[in-house]
Amino acid sequence: MRLSHQVPITTWRATSTWSPRRSTLTPLIGGLALFGFGEGLLVQSRWGATPWTVFAQGLARHLHVSIGWSTALISAVVLTLWWPLRERPGFGTIANLVIIALVLDVTTLLLTSPTNAIVRASYVIGAIIAIGAGSALYLTTGLGPGPRDGLMTSLHRRLGVSVVYVRLAIEVTVLAIGWFMGGTVGVGTALFALTIGFSVGWGLRGVTVIDRRRSRD
Predict the structure, then answer these.
(1) Full DSSP string of 67-113
(2) Residue at 13 is within a domain
(3) Is pLDDT above 70 for 1?
(4) CB atoms < 10 A from the CB of 54, how many?
(5) Where does residue 83 rank: exposed (0-12), middle (13-18), buried (19+ CB within 10 A)?
(6) Could you say which of 5, 17, 46, 52 has the lowest number of CB atoms within 10 Å?
(7) What is the pTM of this model?
């Protein structure tokens, strides 16, 4: 399947960030749940995690809370940084904060960590696919960026720096802090960084195909 290099305008896209429709809620909730499940898979592989989740792991160790609560707390703090940057949240922004943290917590609680290397590798691959597909679904709803994405785009606009460098600076910073605080960094972290862009691209292409077929029916 070919990669998609842009977010498609789907038939379920909301008309504004605070106007979710029934047809919009399914890809929103499903996409965020897939994202949280993928994050949980990567954590339980014990081969690393995404940069923000490494940060959440480190914070959770020091606050003695679950990784889900730590993730939600980080998202809430990031949202406060939107205020001076004049970024506006949407329905999807709040849903992102709640659903991803909840599903991440449930996944890490219910899913055991394998000892077999092949099973661990399957966890990492499954995580990358789930996060890519979940991101693709969530992005097509038009209900506002997630807390971290909103911080990235607002800093990009304010500083006039390429979004690529802004994203890289943020990710490297939170990864370093999380690792210093005790978060797990490993081969899964590196593999995620190298492949997640392709996974999202394939996910967006899949969403485009589904939407076209849905429109014809």
Answers:
(1) HHHHHHHHHHHHHHTHHHHT----HHHHHHHHHHHHHHHHHHHHSPP
(2) no
(3) no
(4) 28
(5) exposed
(6) 5
(7) 0.94
In a domain, 97, yes or no: yes
> Which residues lie below 8 Å from residue 206, measured CB to CB, with a gap of 6+?
1, 133, 136
Q: Strand, helix or coil at 204? A: helix
Residue whose structure tokens are 């490494």: 54
Residue 172: domain span: 22-216
Chain centre distance of CA 175: 15
Q: Phi-psi category of 31—alpha, beta or left, where left has phi over 0 and alpha has psi -120 to 50? A: alpha
User: In this predicted model, what pLDDT tens digit does every residue of 99-138 receive, in sequence order?
Assistant: 999 999 999 999 999 999 999 999 999 999 999 999 999 9
pLDDT range class, residue 72, cuts 50, 70, 90: very high
User: For the chain, how many structural domains are there in total?
Assistant: 1
- The token pair at 176 is 């370093």
Is 177 within the bounds of a domain? yes
- Tens digit of pLDDT for each residue in 160-178? 888 778 888 999 999 999 9
If we measure between CA atoms, which residue out of 57, 49, 89, 95 comes closest to residue 74?
A: 57
Residue 70 near residue 147 (C-beta atoms within 8 A): no
- Cα(200)–Cα(95) distance, integer angstroms: 20
Residue 128 CA to chain centroid, in angstroms?
Answer: 10
Q: Is the pLDDT of residue 69 over 70?
A: yes
